[in-house]
Amino acid sequence: MAWRIDEQVVRGEIDNRERGRMRGRIWLVGHDAAVELDLEGNPWRDLAGHVLRFSNPRPRPGSVGSFARRQSGVVGDITASRKVKVPDVPVDGLERLDAAGEEVPWHWGNGFHLEWFSRSNGRVVIEATGFELELDGDPAWTMSADEESEQQLANARALTRFIEDGAASMGEDPANPVNPEDVAEGGDGTDDDDDAPQSAAEAQADAEAARMDLLLDRVTARLEREGLDGLDEDKFDEIYLEERERLRRERGEPEEKPLTAEEQARQDAWIEELNAAADEALEEMEADEWKGTARDRRHPLVERGSALAVRAHNEIRDGGWMPDDAQHEHPLVEVINGTMAASAKLAGALGMQDDEEWPPDEIIAGNTLVRLKKARDHLRDALRGLDAAEDEQLAPLGWCAGIRREAAEMLGIVQQLIREVREVLADSGEGA
Q1: Cβ contacts of 184 within 8 Å, gap of 6 or more
Q2: How many CB atoms lie within 10 A of CB 281?
Q3: All residues at 6 or more sequence positions from 208 whose CB lies less than 8 Å from its CB, including other chains
């Protein structure tokens, strides 16, 4: 979800000798003039106060489309000491091992990470392990550990603002460039990122989801009032049907009409098709279990959401930053609940889908979209919890910055998925 131009970089330099300001120049393949950087903020402590020159021994040509030659904005994370996994085989070897389902040998190494948020092109990232780096002598000024934590938090907040402002829809993909002049004219990309339905199909899906939520709330409340176990399937079905009928009468909705023979046939065919697809997927999963690949087929965002939820829960617990009797409104409880709920909604939306099955067919697109929007809401809840946790200093700022960055990046991906599903619904001819 960013402009990634590391392969096109020939050489460059960044200069942070003035505190609070980072300037630089970057030369790209096929372009004589350098890209000029003029950014607010500082890099991490390893580069603070320094001039760093870098070069790419193996630059590759590639389209940079409308990438502006003058980049102004704010810094993101900038460091030459981030620990990354470095493969011990060349690219063609990676493809061979991946195709064979074999593990890739790797070692930990220092990675060069240069990130900023541009007013012209949004988020820009240069990330590499093979660049040749040359750092000047003594720094013009030094950064303390506390200042570094504050800078990292400021960087993570800049990413959050970037995502929430809708900038993720502008100029991120060099294969689909956006004219910077269009951005300058005031478009902020938020039109298709709000909660308002963008099509009749989406409005219907939202309404059906809200109705189902209300119905399940009523069923749950009644089970609790009557002291019943929700695992009693027969009793649950009985109460569910009764509450569904009550809701229909309260809303003055007409009774459901019996399906015609033609409608029943279409529904039966649809159910049969879904069941066949489910059986086929189950057979493929069982066939792959011996290879250990069933888990690998989960959507990467589902894996990422699950990992974030587990990390937030465990680190908050192990850090002792929250009392055992913390109420639901406690900021760190909001972080835990928000990440866990987002993970669950992403699993429901994306399931076992892979890239070849995306975007979803229009028959399930409405349901997928509802779940993605709920996942987005929960991620926003987690970010609001982090806002309060940071303000009240309930957890280390460095930890908050890391969780915030991960949640914000996931939020940006969810925004993109929402746009892609909305395109499916628009193409179905049910646009608003």
Answers
A1: 120
A2: 15
A3: 366, 370
Spatial distance between the Cα atoms of 165 and 322, rounded to a whole number of angstroms: 31
- What is the secondary structure of 189-243 as a DSSP string? S-TTTSSS-SBHHHHHHHHHHHHHHHHHHHHHHHHHHTT--TT-HHHHHHHHHHH
**Nearest residue to 400 via CA among 334, 351, 345, 343:** 334
What is the H or E stretch that residue 117 is in?
strand 106-118
Write the Ramachandran bin of 393: left for phi over 0, alpha for psi from -120 to 50, otherwise beta: left
Residues 6+ apart with CB under 8 A from 115: 2, 75, 76, 77, 78, 123, 124, 125, 126, 127, 155
Sheet holding 3-4, edge to edge: 3-4, 122-128, 106-118, 70-87, 35-40, 21-28, 9-15, 51-55, 132-135
What pTM was estimated for this model as a whole?
A: 0.67
Q: Where are the domains of the chain?
A: 3-174, 200-256+296-430
Read off the pLDDT of residues 330-381 as tens digits, 9 standing for 90 and up.
Answer: 999 999 999 999 999 999 888 755 555 788 888 888 889 999 999 999 999 9
Predicted confidence (pLDDT) per residue in 201-242, tens digit: 777 777 877 787 788 888 888 888 888 766 677 778 888 888
Cα 201 to chain centroid distance, Å, stands at 24
List all residues 6 or more positions away from 121 whose beta carbon is below 8 Å from its beta carbon: 3, 66, 67, 68, 71, 170, 171, 172, 178, 180
Label residue 156 left, alpha or beta by phi (over 0 means left) and psi (-120 to 50 means alpha): alpha
CA distance 98 to 189: 37
DSSP for residue 19: T
* Number of residues assigned to the chain: 432
C-alpha 206: how far from chain center: 22
Say which residue the tokens 């569910």 belong to.
240
State the DSSP code for 119: T
Beta bridge partners of 120: none
Q: Report the distance separating Cα 25 and Cα 290, nearest Å.
A: 52
Alpha-carbon distance 1 to 169, whole Å?
9
- Taking alpha carbons only, the member of 362, 343, 364 closest to residue 300 is 343
Could you write out the DSSP letters of every residue in 249-266?
HHTTPPPPPPPPHHHHHH
Burial 199-234 (b: 16+ CB within 10 A, else e): bebbbebbeebeeeeebeebbeeebeeeeeeeeeee
